Amino acid sequence: MTNQINDTFMQARHGNIIAIIQIMNEQLAKLGVRIRAIFSDGVLQVLCEASEVQQLKKSSIVEEVKEILETISPHNIQQVRINSRVVQEQQLLWLEDITRETTNKLLWSQTIILTQPNILKKIANNFYKNKPTAIKIPLSKSIYAKGVQKLNQSQLDVIGIFFLSLLMLILGIQINKWLNLSGVSQMNALENAASQSPSFTNKKSSEEIEPKSKAAFTQAVRLAQKAVADGKVAHSQEEWMAIAKAWQQAAELMASVSPSYSRYDIAVDRAEVYQKHSDIAKKEAEKILGIE
Question: Of 162, 187, 210, which residue constitutes the final position of a domain?
């Protein structure tokens, strides 16, 4: 029985007019009001009928109908026109009848716009959009409350899955950024240490440092640091070719360092690394050229 109740409520949520009428009739029975409805030209036309005029108080009926429909939140239904009249004999073409002679047939009419559900409710609605539904059955007196309760629990489950997926996505993006920045930071730290440290070996004293090698080493480090910074924002072929050229110059400067220089071993290692970075930058430029 619970599954049948939930199926009927979900049919109403999907925009099934018969299911909507069933739910509305159950809720408005306490006021002695009977509902007919039809979806026409993008508007849900609702006819409220009662045996006495006092049962069709406009403010009460409009408030009740709006609350019921916004709780159901039927798919693709936003504009609703509520019509009211004293009950008459069954008419298959009641909409045409009240349209032709509105002033004589109706007590009053009111157009309302349903408040759209927030983004989380929309996610839950989309989750159920293509779910198979059971054969429609008459509703029990508790169908509305049970349908809402069942749907709310399902929405909570979907919302939980959505936020867990979102959290995993954000975490993955942050880890990727951290790994990329970490690699660049390590290179910058190594270059800064190499350019600022007084000496890495005790092979030669400060008095034996060759000015030419020292200048080449320092200039190579500066070029490498600039190439790293430019590589973070490069997009065009020209930019990548300029970066490749900078890495190439840095590699040549490191290769020119004299073996007697105290940082010669570092210079040899850096010359090889800079040359590799130059080749990588050239490949990036070639990729862009291939795309163009």
Answer: 162
| 250-to-100, 214, 230 alpha-carbon distances in Å | 88, 13, 14
pTM beyond 0.70, yes or no: no
The dihedral over CA atoms of 92, 96, 101, 102, expressed in degrees to the nearest 10, equals 100
For residue 183, the surrounding DSSP H or E stretch is helix 143-196
DSSP string across 129-163: TT---PPP----TTHHHHHHHHHHHHHHHHHHHHH
Q: Structural domain tally of the chain?
A: 2
Q: 19 has which bridge partners?
A: none
What is the mean predicted confidence (pLDDT) over 244-257?
92
pLDDT at 9 over 80: yes
- Nearest to residue 198, comparing CAs of 226, 219, 217, 220? 217
Quote the distance between the C-alpha of residue 249 and its chain's center: 46
For residue 284, the one-letter residue type is E
In whole angstroms, give the CA distance from residue 115 to residue 39.
Answer: 18
Tens-place pLDDT, residues 259-284? 988 889 999 999 999 999 999 989 88
**Three-state DSSP class for 38?**
strand
Neighbours of 140 (CB within 10 A): 13
What is residue 231's predicted lDDT score, i.e. its pLDDT?
87
Mean pLDDT of the residues in the chain: 78
126 and 51 in a common domain: yes
Tell whether 205 and 142 lie within a shared domain.
no
